[in-house]
């Protein structure tokens, strides 16, 4: 390639398409559809149409769109779609510390709240090996409360990159959510942005950034799982923004 040539950045061949539905959602949609049919036949037409709307909403809830993830090993991407509701310096959960895990010193935690209208497929913040998966039963407090990270039903996942960087993140069930569905287990090798699980229905994901790494997102910002860059390893510069 000569100095006057530019690298091929691709052509405009990417087109919007309907997102697929994760198989986990088909059984709920089927149940809603059968109830809707029964309402049409045995009760009242207007109730049947309400059932149809609920069926469509269930399919939308379990939508599983394709995401494009940057491959830079220093970039830590969002594991969830949703709203950044908390950014705080806190000690990592005890389930993620110890030998082969995170340290005990406080690190930056970014909390992403998923409403019932967000995509609920969660993705890995980095590429690497799943070294720990810890499920804990608990309460079902509103997921936007700070104490939900310690009291609610939750699942901790620890992934270690090839360079030794460890990222811990926690799926937290919320007020409406009643089940965390894992797609991975310890020992699995995953790509950055790969699907690791989902939470039904409405919830939160906490990400614990490595020591010396600060958030590159702002409170009130919306994230896209597998695409939004939450942080860059080793960068701890504060960023400012404005809600408008």
**Spatial strand sequence of the major β-sheet:** 11-7-8-9-13-5-4-14
The tally of domains stands at: 2
Portion of residues within helices: 10-25%
> Taking Cα atoms only, what radius of gyration do you get, to the nearest Å?
20 Å
Task: Output the number of helix runs.
Answer: 3
Tell me the name of the CATH class of the largest domain. Mainly Beta
Summarize the helix and strand pattern as letters.
Answer: EHHEEEEEEHEEEEEEEE
- Kindly name the structural category: alpha+beta
Which CATH architecture of the largest domain is right? Distorted Sandwich
Termini gap: 44 Å
What CATH calls the topology of the largest domain is Glucose Permease (Domain IIA)
β-strand percent reads 25-35%
Strand elements, count? 15
Description:
The chain has 244 residues and is of the alpha+beta class. It folds into 2 domains: 20-64; 75-232, Glucose Permease (Domain IIA) (Distorted Sandwich). It has 3 helices and 15 strands. The model has no long low-confidence stretch (mean pLDDT 87). It is a peripheral membrane protein. Heterodimer of a large membrane-associated beta subunit and a small pyruvoyl-containing alpha subunit. The active site is at 203 (schiff-base intermediate with substrate). It is found in: Cell membrane.
